[in-house]
Design a protein that fits this description.
Chain lengths: 180, 324
């Protein structure tokens, strides 16, 4: 558990440094690979501790810090994504590689756009729709270039199939069925 | 069940924190942001070093080829530039664009407080805008430039020195012998200037009148207060109606602290009107310094004179009395 947490921390730090270094070398209009989103995706899909929301929020905070203005937008968006992924994982629905790639592609495009719109709504930041869409598309392209080989290489999270006799698992399945 | 409730509680708490972050003022969020940048700094340096080493390994640097002909040409052009600058200054002096010097007298004693003029480069507006829009710079708050720690006020003139050079708010800013304004905000490595024309600017001023066009001597006149109008000029206030004021009179600083040996020029009177029954003149002043064309300015700092502390006069005299 401790080793896993340490590895996650190192992964997040490396992603942060990589994102900063990329943003210094790639012009803003060309987008940038979303290393932190990729790390969030990997952590949320593989984390069994149930605190993916916190991990997502922390990663979102880092993404917020890289933005020139405003804070809290990506904190909320990333924590929401992490919460949803955690629910998927807890409910035992393991995503296939192709679904993971599609989902990541969708998130890589949607999150920056949603962040920009939140900025407009909350802080009256100027919005250049065309620029943001192009930038988000470019960012999605960069992210997918990195993510596709990574998601195909990495082993898929293990699904617990022997859950029938375990009391806690039984209770949990009952919760899922009753939505309680 | 408890675990699930705990997760839901954690999610709610996290989202509440997120909402709080959304409403936090920029001054607080910039501090939070700087923590992230500082954390990432060692990693960035490591990547930078690695990239540099790889670049050096791929393409080793070549020694510059010395060409004596080009060196001589550069020296010739530099001399030519110096001569042209001198000619330009002389022409400006003849046309009255450069304010005449005022003689300052000293009594020979070393002053306790010494003025220290610190040179600073002006950051252009375009550069300031580009910097503000660029999300990433390669230094942390403990080492240097950071967008959120830079004071890059797009409405004001920005300078490339800040707390790192001991700049303090309200320090005077000069361009040669002319007043530009005062330091408004100080960042870690930059500062912004409240210009003379700013509506919040106030300063002690004194009128000087030319005795004759040929002698280039100035006669001190009435004291007043110079105030920015928020447009491209200033007003000189509190000049009594009994004083003599003419268009073209010079306006200089009138600080009584005696830090600088000479007064600094604010500008020239462009309009002087005394309305019937008015107690004071209505005077408009055109600033001598044009902030649009400034490239380098000087900041006034003060420091204690170290000579005054090496051999204190009181102690020295006592020593001479005791010695037989």
């Amino acid at each position: 558990m401790i080793v896993r947490s340490l590895l996650s921390l190192i992964l997040v730090y490396l992603a942060l440094v990589a994102e900063i270094c990329c943003s210094r070398r790639i012009p803003t209009d060309w987008g940038r690979p979303q290393f932190l989103l990729l790390v969030l995706f990997l952590i949320a899909l593989r984390n069994r501790s149930g605190i993916s929301v916190v991990s997502g929020a922390c990663i979102g905070f880092l993404v917020d810090s890289l933005e020139p203005t405003g804070m809290g937008r990506f904190f909320l968006l990333y924590s929401l994504v992490a919460w949803w992924l955690q629910r998927r994982r807890v409910s035992g629905k393991v995503l296939h590689s192709s679904t993971q790639i599609f989902l990541l592609c969708f998130l890589a495009f949607t999150i920056p756009v949603a962040g920009a719109f939140l900025g407009v709504l909350l802080a009256s930041q100027p919005l250049e729709v065309q620029g943001i869409l192009f930038e988000s598309l470019a960012s999605t392209g960069w992210t997918m270039l990195l993510a596709i080989p990574l998601l195909l290489i990495l082993p898929r999270p293990v699904q617990h199939r022997d859950s029938g006799s375990h009391p806690s698992r039984t209770t949990y399945r009952w919760n899922m069925l009753t939505n309680s | 069940m408890q675990n699930r409730a705990g997760q839901q509680l954690a999610a709610v708490v996290v989202w509440l924190v997120g909402v709080c972050l959304l409403v936090l003022p920029e001054s607080v969020t910039s501090r939070l942001r700087s923590v992230t940048w500082d954390l990432a700094l060692p990693g960035e340096h490591l990547v930078e070093l690695s990239v540099q080493k790889v670049q050096l390994w791929i393409s080793p640097p070549q020694a510059p080829v010395e060409n004596p002909e080009i060196d001589a040409r550069i020296a010739f052009l530099e001399n030519q530039i110096r001569e042209l600058r001198l000619q330009n200054h002389q022409l400006k002096s003849r046309q009255g664009l450069v304010p005449p010097r005022i003689r300052a007298s000293t009594d020979g004693t070393a002053p306790l407080i010494l003025p220290d003029l610190l040179a600073a480069r002006v950051i252009g507006r375009e550069l300031a805008r580009a910097w503000n829009e660029q999300p990433v710079l390669n230094r942390g708050s403990t080492h240097g430039a950071r967008p959120d720690l830079l004071v890059l006020d797009q409405e004001r003139l920005n300078l490339d020195i800040g707390q790192d050079h001991g700049v303090r708010p309200d320090s005077s800013v000069y361009a040669g012998r002319t007043v530009v304004g005062r330091v408004a905000r100080v960042g870690l490595v930059t500062s912004s200037v409240r210009l003379l024309t700013d509506s919040q600017y106030r300063g002690a001023a004194r009128l000087f009148q030319e005795t004759s066009a040929e002698s280039n001597q100035l006669r001190p006149g009435a004291r007043g207060i110079i105030a920015g109008t928020g447009r491209d000029n200033c007003r000189l206030l509190d000049i009594a109606a009994s004083e003599t004021v003419e268009v073209g009179d010079w306006v200089y600083t009138a600080e009584e602290d005696g830090i600088l040996p000479h007064a600094m020029c604010y500008g020239r009177v462009t309009r002087a009107e005394l309305k019937p029954g008015a107690v004071h003149w209505e005077i408009e002043v055109a600033p001598a310094a044009d902030p649009q064309h400034l490239r380098e300015v000087s900041l006034l700092r003060t420091r204690l004179n170290p000579d005054r502390f090496e051999a204190p006069p009181a102690l020295a005299s006592r020593k001479t009395e005791v010695t037989p």
